[in-house]
Amino acid sequence: MDKKIIFSGIQPTGNLTLGNYLGAINNWKKMQDEYKCNYCIVDLHALTIRHDPEVLRKNIINLLALYIAAGLDPEKSNIFIQSHVKAHSELAWILNCYTYTGELSRMTQFKDKSAKHADNINSGLYTYPVLMAADILLYQTDLVPVGEDQRQHVELTRDIAERFNNIYGQTFKIPESYIQGAAARVMGLQNPNSKMSKSSTIPNDYILLNDEPDVILSKFKKSVTDSENVVRYDVENKAGISNLISIYSAITTKSKEEIEKEFDGKGYGEFKVAVAECVIDELKPIQAKYKELLNNRDYLESIYKDGAEKAKRVANKTLEDVYKKVGLVL
Ligand code: ATP
Ligand code: LTN
């Protein structure tokens, strides 16, 4: 049987957090043998926020290095940069004509980002999910591994694909989101009621993948908990501790019950240090590989060039079919 097709991507908008790692890359890594994986650096999406061009250029390469450092293997997965495959922008335009403004207005991420960037609510931010739909649909994707926050965008992708297929006949495979793991939604360390985000203004709220060990330890020690001093999973009443349990569980693969037992009778101080240590140990080899890769620009270039060529072959086929179906002259 043919392997199922995976597509996912991260925006090169800055340093990645532990949330990006546990909610996305760490799961992607585990899927490489069983599935045919496409992992993209979605640089066009990053243009929806004001940015410095030189910083963006660096962030794109840094993210590529991080993908590989974190365990994505270019021999197994196709790794490429979105803007190198022009079909993404071209299909996005067409899909815009099959997406209703009412649907886009309902997107939670659009509402959040509009609130955050009130001085720059541009059309790209609004149609962002259509470009994401194009990303996914070009590759006849079966599964889209993402964090919980992206479920709504994948639902919209399905609706757009179904609408198009209903009008023109089978063109796109209908994808499903694939949300897994104990840490599908890693919460902020200072504000455990909202998601850990690299764009948070409070550095102690997030762990960056390139944070030094002493910084990681200090951030976990300062993390917000409750006064009960019992390591018990209870999101409603103990959001902070529950978040730490999820992080510890995602990395050690121990169940929540095992963790509660392990720290039975022990206080938060000891638990926080254990969580910090497992995160430090997890990130250490990734950080070392990352530094090494950034010194090997030729290798990185060969990966993204090769990746784009492979991606184009599949993407252009879908795009050509779409062009034909909507009545363009080829
Ligand atoms: P920003 O915070 O700037 O909005 P982001 O950190 O959400 O960005 P994205 O590039 O939008 O980063 O997300 C990349 C992937 O990481 C997505 O699959 C997303 O679901 C996942 N992800 C991001 N934050 C978390 C989190 N806190 N927990 C779990 N998964 C996350
Ligand atoms: N919208 C996603 C990033 C993204 C993506 C995709 C994820 C763009 N295109 C295609 C999965 C599949 C985000 O904001 N995290």
Which features would summarize this protein structure in a list?
binds adenosine-5'-triphosphate, binds L-tryptophanamide, 2 domains, two-stranded parallel sheet, 5 strands, Rossmann fold, 3-stranded parallel sheet, 7% strand, single chain, Tyrosyl-Transfer RNA Synthetase, mainly alpha, globular, 13 helices, 54% helix, 330 residues
Descriptive overview:
This protein has 330 residues and is mostly helical. It folds into 2 domains: 5-185 and 297-326, HUPs (Rossmann fold, 3-Layer(aba) Sandwich); 210-291, Tyrosyl-Transfer RNA Synthetase (Orthogonal Bundle), CATH 1.10.240. It is built from 13 helices and 5 strands. It has helices at 18-30, 43-46, 53-69, 87-96, 101-105, 108-116, 123-138, 151-168, 213-221, 239-252, 256-262, 268-294, 297-326; strands at residues 5-10, 36-41, 78-81, 143-145, 176-178. The strands form 2 sheets. The protein has a 3-stranded parallel beta sheet with strand order 1-2-3. The protein has a two-stranded parallel ribbon with strand order 4-5. Helix 7 (123-138) packs across helix 8 (151-168). The two termini are 33 Å apart. The relative contact order is 0.14. The model has no long low-confidence stretch (mean pLDDT 96). The structure holds adenosine-5'-triphosphate and L-tryptophanamide. L-tryptophanamide (LTN) binds at residues 7-9, 11, 42, 45, 132, 135-136, 144, 146, 150, 153.
